[in-house]
Design brief:
Length: 130
C-alpha cells in the first residue's frame, strides 16, 4: 500500500490514502488530515451542513394483534412534510410520507417486519400522515 505525503506550509504532514489517481477533490478532502507531535491523527471536519431545527416529537406505544409497537415520531420542516419514524424496539428508522406508505413492501423492508405487522403499522401511520 502506498501513501502520498504532501507538505504544506500550514501543516507538518498531510497523508493521503492510496488513490488510482490524485484529483484536486481528493487533495482538498484529505489535505486537512495532519499528524500532531504525539503521533495522533487529527482531522478538521468538512461539514456539508450543521443546522439546528425545532422539531415536534411524539412518543407512541400501542398494541397490535400480535405485536407491541414503541415509536418515536418526529416532524420537522427538514424533510418536506415527511416524518421520521423510529421503531425503538428494533432500532430502525425511516423518513416516511404518504407516498412511501402506499409503496408495496416498503414498511416490511425498512422495519424488517412481516406483512401483517407492517400492515398494522401502515394503518396507524396513515392516520398520522393524512
Amino acid at each position: 500500500t502506498k501513501f502520498f505525503v504532501i507538505f504544506l506550509p500550514s501543516m507538518k504532514y498531510n497523508v493521503l490514502p492510496p488513490f488510482k489517481e490524485i484529483s484536486l477533490l481528493n487533495l482538498l478532502l484529505y489535505s486537512t488530515i495532519s499528524l500532531c507531535t504525539e503521533g495522533v491523527m487529527l482531522m478538521e471536519r468538512f461539514f456539508l451542513y450543521d443546522d439546528q431545527e425545532d422539531t415536534n416529537t411524539r412518543f407512541v406505544s400501542f398494541m397490535g394483534e400480535n405485536q407491541r409497537y414503541d415509536l418515536a415520531i418526529m416532524q420537522s420542516a427538514r424533510f418536506y412534510g415527511k416524518i421520521i419514524v423510529m421503531d425503538m424496539q428494533y432500532s430502525r428508522f425511516a423518513i416516511i410520507g404518504s407516498d412511501d406508505l402506499d409503496e408495496p413492501g416498503y414498511l416490511e423492508h425498512v422495519f424488517n417486519r412481516p406483512a401483517d405487522e407492517a400492515q398494522e403499522l401502515r394503518e396507524y401511520l396513515h392516520e398520522l400522515v393524512n
